């Protein structure tokens, strides 16, 4: 089969036809798709050991089983994305088991360890909500047929995860002792999830994701979608968050210095130092946080032990 030209690909997309495999796309389209899939796959995969660590603090066996169900879902979502990468010619064994931890592409938020049931359920309400927003946008708009069909299942499961977090936040907010712990978790996790959506649109690279229809909304638009449900949830529970709706601008705005410096070891935003630059934030993302190496090692340990046994 002759290589697909950029003109032929654009004509296919203009007709509203999905791309069903790499043989129907250009190398630039495939590279952009791979880049998007790696971020999604890494994020789903790293959430499993991160959530499992915090699930040890579950208040009951039923709560623990609920958390394990969510972790199984996340592993399934990761498998879907890595399988598609394999179909695109990527060596996924090397990608998962031989890559340096710092090269994983998950959000920085997962590099900050989740250490309690409270932090786990806020992660469900905040992080899984971010996943629901991001993957929901891809589900509705992507031009890559195999991923669009697979995301029908993922979309519904991510919705379950965030509802699990919401339900538990309501429970924890009802008692003074757990409410204080809940507010502490919200204090450090809220802005990390705002960061989750990446650079602002005016600094965004890889704009071909929208050009090829791999996603439908920009980073800023998706961030607004997340804020439009996360902030009202916290407000309804009486929790303080540094964000509000600005009716004159008709958008949600952050009310503290942002972007800001973050002390990952102390789980504390250094807001007293004022706003920083996105270049500095990107530097923190690349340096990775305290849980990065530990979580990736948990994922890679079994594979390496098997390799030693087979040697």
How would you explain this protein's 3D organization?
With 311 residues, the chain is mainly alpha-helical. Helices cover 63% and strands 4% of the residues. It has helices at 6-14, 27-55, 61-87, 92-98, 117-141, 145-173, 176-195, 208-211, 219-236, 278-287, 292-310, and strands at 243-246, 251-254, 262-263, 268-269. The strands form 2 sheets. Strands 1-2 form a two-stranded antiparallel ribbon. Strands 3-4 form a two-stranded antiparallel sheet. The radius of gyration is 20 Å and the shape is globular. The termini are far apart. The mean pLDDT is 95.
Low-confidence segments, given as residue ranges, are none
Count every helix, treating DSSP H or I runs of 4 or more residues as helices.
11
Question: Major beta sheet, specifics?
Answer: 2 strands, antiparallel
Spatial gap, N to C terminus? 40 Å
- The succession of helices and strands, N to C, reads HHHHHHHHHEEEEHH
The helix fraction, in percent, is 55-70%
Question: What best-fitting shape do the alpha-carbon axes yield?
Answer: globular
Instruction: State mean pLDDT (0 to 100 scale).
Output: 95
How do the strands line up in the largest sheet? 1-2
User: What gyration radius follows from the Cα positions, in whole Å?
Assistant: 20 Å
Label the structural class: mainly alpha
According to DSSP, the number of beta strands is 4
* Strand-residue proportion: under 5%
């Amino acid at each position: 089969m002759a290589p697909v030209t950029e003109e032929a690909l654009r004509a296919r997309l203009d007709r509203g036809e999905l791309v069903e495999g790499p043989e129907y796309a250009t190398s630039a389209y495939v590279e952009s798709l791979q880049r998007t899939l790696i971020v999604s796959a890494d994020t789903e995969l790293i959430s499993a050991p991160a959530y499992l660590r915090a699930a040890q603090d579950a208040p009951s066996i039923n709560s623990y089983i609920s958390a394990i169900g969510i972790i199984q879902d996340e592993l399934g979502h990761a498998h879907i994305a890595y399988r598609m990468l394999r179909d695109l010619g990527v060596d996924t064994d090397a990608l998962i088991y031989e890559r340096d931890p710092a090269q994983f592409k998950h959000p920085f938020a997962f590099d900050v360890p989740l250490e309690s049931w409270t932090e786990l359920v806020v992660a469900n309400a905040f992080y899984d909500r971010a996943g629901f927003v991001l993957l929901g946008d891809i589900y509705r708009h992507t031009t890559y047929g195999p991923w669009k069909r697979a995301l029908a299942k993922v979309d519904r499961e991510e919705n379950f995860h965030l509802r699990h977090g919401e339900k538990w936040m309501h429970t924890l907010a009802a008692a003074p002792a757990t409410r204080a712990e809940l507010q502490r978790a919200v204090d450090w996790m809220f802005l990390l999830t705002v960061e989750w959506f990446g650079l602002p649109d005016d600094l965004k690279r890889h704009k071909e994701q929208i050009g090829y229809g791999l996603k439908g909304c920009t980073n800023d638009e998706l961030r607004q979608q997340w804020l439009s449900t996360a902030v009202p949830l916290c407000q309804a529970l009486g929790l303080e968050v540094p964000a509000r709706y600005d009716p004159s601008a008709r958008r949600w705005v952050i009310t503290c210095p942002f972007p800001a410096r973050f002390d990952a070891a102390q789980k504390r935003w250094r807001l007293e130092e004022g706003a920083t630059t996105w270049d500095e934030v990107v530097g923190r993302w690349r340096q990775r946080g305290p849980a990065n190496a530990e979580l990736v090692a948990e994922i890679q340990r079994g594979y390496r032990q098997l390799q030693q046994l087979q040697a």
